[in-house]
Design a protein that fits this description.
With 401 residues, the chain is of the alpha+beta class. The protein has three domains: 127 residues, Wnt, WIF domain (Immunoglobulin-like, Sandwich); 169 residues, Immunoglobulin-like, CATH 2.60.40; 55 residues, no CATH class. The chain is 23% helix and 31% strand. The protein contains seven helices and 24 strands. A six-stranded antiparallel β-sheet has the order 13-12-11-15-20-18, with no helix packed on it. This is Transmembrane protein. Keywords: Membrane, Signal, Transmembrane, Transmembrane helix.
Length: 401
């Protein structure tokens, strides 16, 4: 009896852990970069036994996963579960954002607290009834332990007016650039296919920094720093270092990136800073080109990674309205091109422009004299050519002809 129960439990577990061969999950909708799950089997870097987990840095606020599944299966919210090991430091959520044919986009909002730092492990369970299940794992660094970049400003070109959206390394009005405020978040209208941001430095010293840098003790700080290498750094020394760091007239930026629901839009980065670079007091352009592919609204996340300082992250909405392409117009253009080509061929090959109407009729009447009734043998030859065959069965680049 106990043996039967044991066999039943093993069979039940095996059934629950069976592989769903129709399940594919990727971070890219076209699957051109990598597959997280392929035919129900997770990639080795996404399993619990992985030597090194996939790591999401602290500046990323959301991620998209793209699920491709058999047309007969409709993916619902209860088939996908998100788990993470620190509910105090993060309040993460997952939901099905959009679906197109048999492709579903899943949006993960991390909702990390913005102070301190914590490495959190995430897990997503796919449990597809009558198909199978799969699990993937990764890690996310929550929090922003770095200081904001004093003097860094970002202006957005909105309806031909420059509007400052980042001042001294911090969003001016967070409600306009925060995905949690759906009623107030900044929305790019459907008639705009790109947005332009100007990034530049505008350094100003406040009175506290002036007092710190003008102290007599500050002059002796750098001379004594080597002698005090083994001693504990004081709070005043930290203030001196931070004040000097803030007054550096430039900042290094790593390549920015933009994320969105690729079933609706496929945004790319252009402009002076699309590969990163050094930002000075001269404005550098950062252009987000949206490239809408489907009607709907989607959340856009634009991240500007700063070296040694807290990154700039802006989250906003984009409206997409895609007008259907007219195949008739394309075919019409091709038709007219062919017609013009034929007419041009007749004019310059047969010298038609120097011929009268009677000459043209004479040519056609002469051609009709050579017409004769086809025989059975002629029909056989004609049928041979219709199916693309020759007597000697020669080879060409298109195969056997």
């Amino acid at each position: 009896m106990n043996l039967l129960i044991y066999v039943f439990l093993i069979s039940f577990v095996k059934c629950f852990e069976s592989t769903c061969k129709y399940l594919h999950v990727s971070t890219d909708i076209d699957k051109s970069r990598d597959d997280i799950i392929k035919a129900g089997v997770p990639a080795r870097q996404w399993v619990l036994e992985a030597d090194t987990f996939q790591l999401v840095n602290n500046s990323v606020q959301m991620d998209y996963l793209y699920v491709t599944i058999d047309n007969k299966i409709q993916l619902t919210q209860d088939m996908v579960q998100l788990e993470f090991d620190d509910h105090y430091f993060a309040n993460s959520t997952l939901k099905i954002e959009h679906h197109q044919n048999n492709v579903y986009s899943l949006r993960i909002d991390y909702r990390c607290k913005q102070y301190g730092g914590r490495l959190i492990q995430y897990e997503v369970l796919f449990n597809i009834p009558s198909c199978g299940s799969a699990k993937i794992y990764w890690q996310k660094l929550c929090g922003s332990p770095l200081i904001k970049r004093h003097g860094l400003n970002v202006d957005a070109l909105v309806k031909q007016y420059n509007q400052t959206v980042v001042k001294d390394g911090e969003l001016v009005n967070k409600a306009y650039w925060d995905k949690d405020f759906d009623n107030f978040v900044f929305t790019v209208p459907a008639n705009l296919n790109y947005s332009i941001f100007y990034v530049y430095m505008n350094l100003t010293k406040n009175s506290d920094e002036e007092n710190i840098l003008n102290k007599e003790e500050t002059k002796d700080f750098f001379n004594a720093v080597d002698q005090q290498a083994e001693t504990e750094t004081t709070q005043e020394e930290f203030q001196v270092l931070e004040a000097i760091l803030k007054l550096i007239p430039e900042v290094h930026i790593s390549p920015p990136y933009v994320d969105a629901d690729h079933t609706i839009t496929k945004p790319i980065i252009r402009g002076d800073l699309f590969k990163g670079g050094v930002v000075t007091n001269e404005p550098s352009t950062l252009i987000v080109e949206y490239n809408c592919v489907e009607n709907g609204n989607t959340t856009i996340e634009l991240n500007i990674p700063l070296q040694y300082f807290q990154d700039i992250t802006m989250v906003f909405q984009k409206q997409c309205v895609v007008s259907p392409q007219s195949s008739f117009s394309i075919l019409s253009i091709l038709f007219y091109l062919i017609c013009f080509g034929v007419v041009g061929f007749l004019f310059y090959t047969f010298d038609v422009h120097n011929m009268s109407l009677s000459d043209i009729r004479k040519i056609f009447s002469q051609r009709q004299k050579f017409n004769y009734k086809s025989t059975g043998k002629d029909e056989d030859i004609e049928s041979e050519f219709k199916i693309g065959r020759l007597v000697d069965n020669q080879e060409s680049k298109y195969g056997s002809i």
